[in-house]
Specification:
Helix content is 52%, strand content 12%. The chain is α/β, with parallel strands linked by helices and 311 residues long. It has a 6-stranded mixed sheet, with helices on both faces. A hairpin with a 2-residue loop joins strand 1 and strand 2.
């Protein structure tokens, strides 16, 4: 059955809603909900810098659509959505943040012209082991935690932690998280009547979802993500199989040398079980469904639900 709304966490859909210059108040409200300030005050205006070649995006399934904006005081903000885990996400974040910061200057420019630069990563998976949904990072002194300055600022929003995180969040951010994770929720419709910016976002999502062309582009994007997820799963299963085969081979060789057949079998079995649990914990932390983790590792759903108590 076709869903009424497109997934607002899909980068294409997200950019259509939050990267719309005609409705920039949506992005302003979202950034203010994260506590991002402009010269110590709430953001009152910004300019969206749209350098995305949409035609190229449609042809390249692996391209990423982000949103770049300049605040009214010149500060730069980049917002990116990632549904699937990215292997070197932290390094990638630092690279593009510092590149955006340094690209402000041309040869001969004074360093005083550099404006603060902020990046916001909205994630559809768990990047960190802590239970916070919204994390903010600055450059600080290792001993006193004194902030070096506001030059660079990084925000992570981990949407899969919404239901379980004990973190206290502002009402505006709670609203946006609900919109991103479950736009068909009745509470969102009510919130759209109370908060103008949320109402505009809902209207834009409805328009996109009704458009055959926009839906086709979004669904093609989702298909590419499903294919990528399936490829990663297949590679993981292949790696697990290869690892088990190599482990058995090593175990047999060691067993022949030592002549401890019984101990060898028990040791290998214990080692394989421990390895399964370690792999399962990593997959669950990254946001993979329990049914998929069970299929890959061979562990029961009951064991996976109690995995913290078993390891």
């Amino acid at each position: 059955m076709e869903k009424k709304y497109l997934n607002p966490l899909l980068d294409y859909t997200f950019k259509k809603i939050f990267g719309n210059e005609k409705h920039k108040e949506i992005l302003i409200h979202f950034l203010n909900s994260l506590g991002i300030e402009s010269q110590g005050h709430k953001i009152v205006d910004l300019r969206i810098l749209d350098h995305t070649n949409e035609k190229r995006f449609k042809l390249d399934k692996h391209s990423v659509m982000d949103i770049k904006a300049t605040l009214n005081n010149g500060e730069l903000v980049n917002i990116e959505v990632q549904i699937l885990p990215y292997e070197h996400m932290l390094q990638r974040t630092i690279y593009y943040l510092t590149k955006m910061y340094s690209d402000q200057l041309t040869q001969g420019d004074d360093y005083g012209k550099l404006c603060n630069t902020i990046t916001v990563n909205v994630l559809g998976y768990n990047q960190f082991e802590h239970d916070r949904i919204h994390s903010v990072y600055h450059i600080r002194d290792a001993e006193t935690c004194e902030k070096l300055g506001d030059f660079l600022e990084i925000h992570f929003i981990e949407t899969r932690k919404i239901e379980k995180s004990p973190q206290e969040l502002g009402e505006d951010l709670k609203g946006w998280l609900l919109f991103l994770s479950n736009p068909e929720n009745q509470r969102i419709k009510e919130l759209g009547k109370e908060v103008g910016e949320v109402g505009q976002a809902i209207n834009l999502l409805e328009e996109l979802s009704r458009s055959r062309e926009e839906r086709a582009i979004a669904e093609e994007r989702e298909k590419a993500l499903r294919d990528e997820r399936s490829f990663r799963k297949a590679e993981l299963e292949k790696g697990l199989k290869l690892g088990r085969e190599e482990g058995l081979k090593e175990g047999r060789e060691e067993g022949r040398e030592e002549g401890l057949k019984e101990g060898r079998e028990e040791g290998r079995e214990e080692g394989r079980e421990a390895e399964k649990y370690q792999i399962a914990k990593k997959l669950i932390h990254k946001g993979m469904d329990l049914s998929e983790v069970s299929e890959i590792t061979g562990l029961s759903l009951k064991d996976l639900k109690n995995i913290d108590n078993l390891t």
